[in-house]
Specification:
Largest sheet: 6 strands, mixed
CATH topology of the largest domain: Rossmann fold
Number of strands: 13
Number of helices: 8
Distance between the termini: 52 Å
Oligomer: single chain
Length: about 250
């Protein structure tokens, strides 16, 4: 397939969709030395085809691509059938443009990293996203009872959320965030406590990604995301998951 290059061999395979050949070569070499199998696609069309022919464990997706906006690529990934739709996506965004990052998370990206970046930080974020994904999809030794709050059902084993029987679309990370809140229903949690509960990366003082994810979760499970009844904001503190729900 044109525009596709593969490096080294390992169980965990990554796909980088990036049109900057020099950056892609540097990143692929670094990640290859860290033990990952890395495939590179120079445009969105090649990348989407590669994802479906050889599904990776994670996609590193540039926001600006020559043939398609990275946000549209992310949307198309989330619309793919079966397990492909849940493929973790780490989006590369322009430095100093928080709106791009917010929109990326709203479109279903699991994490973002602004350019320019340190390869070590990229590696750390990849490991964190993969760890969350693997832990989230691993089958527990003992079945966990579903969490039920009114018409909201959270099946922790099947990793399915439904409201009145209708499935809700959430990323793996958003599902973990919802479970962390639901398991602590009635407790006010700070953003740091929520991030710690899902064992993600540390929350930067200016990082509002948790709020973006909460917005996505609300859009999926609330009757009116602008007037939430399930996930409530505690101004100046964080969030609380309501014990009593319809």
């Amino acid at each position: 397939m044109r525009g596709l290059a593969r490096l080294k061999s390992m169980n965990q395979q990554l796909l980088m969709i990036e049109d900057d050949a020099r950056l892609a070569s540097m990143v692929c070499e670094y990640l290859g030395q860290s033990g990952y199998t890395v495939a590179h696609a120079g445009d969105a069309k090649t990348g989407l085809a590669a994802l479906q022919s050889q599904p990776p464990h994670l996609v590193i997706l540039d926001l600006m691509l020559p043939d398609m906006d990275g946000l549209e690529v992310c949307r198309r990934i989330r619309a793919l059938p079966g397990a492909l739709a849940a493929t973790p996506v780490l989006m590369l965004t322009a430095k100093g443009d928080p709106m791009d990052r917010i929109i990326g998370l709203e479109m279903g990206a699991d994490d973002y990293l602004p350019k320019p970046f340190e390869p070590r930080e990229l590696l750390a974020r990849i490991r964190a996203v993969l760890r969350r994904h693997v832990e989230g999809t691993a089958q527990p030794q003992a079945a966990a009872s579903p969490l039920r709050f009114g018409s909201l059902d959270i099946d922790r084993d099947a990793r399915i959320v439904t409201v009145a029987g209708q499935a809700c679309e959430l990323t793996s990370y958003q599902f973990d965030l919802l479970v962390a809140l639901a398991e602590r229903a009635g407790r006010v949690l700070t953003r740091d406590q929520i991030m710690e509960a899902v064992r993600g990366r540390e929350l930067d003082a200016f990082d509002r990604s948790i709020d973006v994810h909460m917005g996505r979760i609300r859009a999926a499970i609330e009757a009116d995301a602008k007037a939430p009844k399930r996930i409530l904001t505690v101004r100046g503190v964080g969030y609380v998951f309501a014990r009593q729900q319809d």
